[in-house]
Amino acid sequence: MSDTNTATTATTAPVTPAGTVTGMVEHVLALAATWTRWDGRPAHVDWRVYTPHKAVRRVADHMVDHLAEMEARLAGEETQPDHWHASMVTTEADLAPFTQADLDEARSRLTRLARIWANRLDALTEEQLDHSPGEGWSFRRLAEHLEESVYYADAVGDLS
Questions:
Q1: Nearest alpha-carbon partner for 138 in 17, 25, 22
Q2: Fewer CB near the terminus (10 Å): N or C of the chain?
Q3: Whole-number pLDDT of residue 10
Q4: Distance (Å, whole) CA 57 – CA 86
Q5: Contact 114/60 with Cβ under 8 angstroms?
Q6: What are phi and psi of 32, to 5 degrees?
């Protein structure tokens, strides 16, 4: 992840916070498109276990968690602490085969979550992005933090 989300290259426009989140989801879904080939053996990375279902679950949970945080802060409310078991727990559902139907569900779920994030972030001013209300990271930094969710998908990897 770069130090700033406004980095550019000779052929691309600056990456916005919304683009950071949607780009993360595109990366995850590109890998997920190969997971229907998963042989059922979990990946062991950084002393934890990862599977296709667990990667999708963790990305979605991470997006929901921080979306709830952002919305609460914008509404002037206290944020609710999360009680996710996160990646420390691998459920029976995480160990299920990853089918084409699961991929379709993941695409729908993650694409919609990314659009909600993008719409919300695009509606904020630069001031709101950088000097966000309430306690916690700025909303720009939250978007950058969400980009780190690629870790879960990268742990499973490209199975093509």
A1: 17
A2: C
A3: 55
A4: 9
A5: no
A6: -60, -30
% residues pLDDT > 90 (the chain): 85
Structure token digits, residue 86: 């996160």
pLDDT tens digits, one per residue of 22-56: 999 999 999 999 999 999 999 999 999 999 999 99
The structure tokens listed for 8 are 């550019």
Distance CA 160, CA 154 (A): 13
Task: Output the pLDDT for position 81.
Answer: 86
If DSSP codes are grouped into helix, strand and coil, which group holds residue 6?
coil
Q: Tell me the longest C-alpha to C-alpha distance in the chain.
A: 48
Amino acid at 15: V
| Residues 139 and 69 sit within 8 Å (Cβ to Cβ) | no
Task: Provide the token pair at 153.
Answer: 């998908």
b/e code 88-101 from CB counts within 10 Å (16+ = b): eebeeebeeebeee
Question: Token digits for 76?
Answer: 């002037």
| Residue whose structure tokens are 């919304």 | 18
Q: What is the pLDDT of residues 74-110, one digit of tens each?
A: 999 999 988 878 888 999 999 999 999 999 999 999 9
User: Which residue do the tokens 């679950």 mark?
Assistant: 57
State yes or no: pLDDT of 3 exceeds 90: no
